Amino acid sequence: MNKEIKIDNEIQLLAQELERKFSKQQISQWAIDTGFMKRKAKVKPMYFLLLCTLLGESFGQKSLTQLCAQLGATFNIGITTEGLNQRFNTQAVEFLKRMYQSLVTQQLEGSLSFIENRWFNRLRILDSSSFDLPGDYQDYKGPNGSGIKIQLEYELMKGNFLNLHIQHGKESDSKYPQVIQETIQPGDLCLRDLGYFSIDNLLDIQNRGGYFLSRLKNDVNLYVENDAGKWEKIDVSEIAATLNRGEAIQLHNVRISARSKDPLLARVVITKLTEEQQSKRQAHLNKKKKKGKSTLSAQKNISVNIHATNITQNQVKKEEIFLLYSIRWQIEILFKTWKSLFEIHKVKKMKKERFECHLYGTLIRLLLSSTLAFYCRRLLYIKEQMEVSEYKSISIVKESLPRLVSVMYDKKGSLVEIAKRIYRSIKINGRKCRRQHKQTVFDILGIAFKQEAS
């Protein structure tokens, strides 16, 4: 790809799409469709949307008095706390939900990609984040009373949120892949952690023409077929004893678990951890044990990682499987921004509808921020070969969000100019700090896909 790409054209495309999504006409139509706007009111749909999203700093912790003051200072309208409290209703929740769903289903992609030729169509990372709630919300049952869980499937190559669902806090992760299985396309690579492991789910990915890379529990039963056609159990600890630190071994056509009907046969890669990696794992297990959680299964074969995949050796070598799986940390960084930057989990006691306005409003903010950040990050990598910190870039975009209010409300300035400023700021202050012996996501993708490029 020509490095002298027209950055202005890409930013112009981004700004035009934002203008379309946040136009007064579109917002008013959603307000009418959801029943939020039935008559003329002081708090117009645009004001309410901005209050819950771009002006939503610490929204979940502010009092009604503070929110009324914010409306007055920003839009010069006077409203009582009771009047505003009445606006937080089911119609308001549906209004914000409609905006959020529009952003999720029609995300900005741009015309540029990190890697033009690769084995996989999309690189899908699935994980969840949960937090407790202060109120007694019947719809959100958590382990400690009320709680919420957000399931996110993130596509790494384009930075899109493929699937984002809100569940009650007690919902099991292992059931969620069934909800999104229809979205899997041929060539998709699905990275799955232990919590999502299910033989049926992995078989479904394979049957749809997709690829899976899943970590297995350390006490999993693995079998290989001998010359007599009988399945023999693999002694993982025996294999681990023969490996040097950092060394990997692969086994083909391994049956996962003792299940004989519709079995999962996969390539299994066993990687011996370095001393540092094993020490970190042990420390993590010690913390879990102190909290009263069982660690017996995880303690077994603690010196190795075991992964199952249907990726072939020609696509990704055994030495790179653990590395490729490790890019799951990208979604952990996203979750870190949700809580540390956007404070989605910090909620005071309030009625359910007001909390849900905080929830969907915050999701709109973080979705918009991560989309803009990834867009600029991709441009900088292609244009400058510059690796940008995910956390820093999202933080920079977040600080620029209030500036969008004056463009959308007062029509002062332009979205193009704001997008250019964000791009410039990320270029100056968003560079990723390289730690010694630590590979970045770009390093890993370059290693994993280098065979195809050659």
UniProtKB/TrEMBL annotation:
InterPro entries: RNaseH-like_sf, Transpos_IS4, Transposase_11. One of its GO terms (biological process) is DNA transposition. One of its GO terms (molecular function) is DNA binding. Residues 120-365 form the Transposase IS4-like domain. Keywords: DNA recombination, DNA-binding, Transposition. The keyword Signal does not apply. Belongs to the transposase 11 family. This is IS4 family transposase.
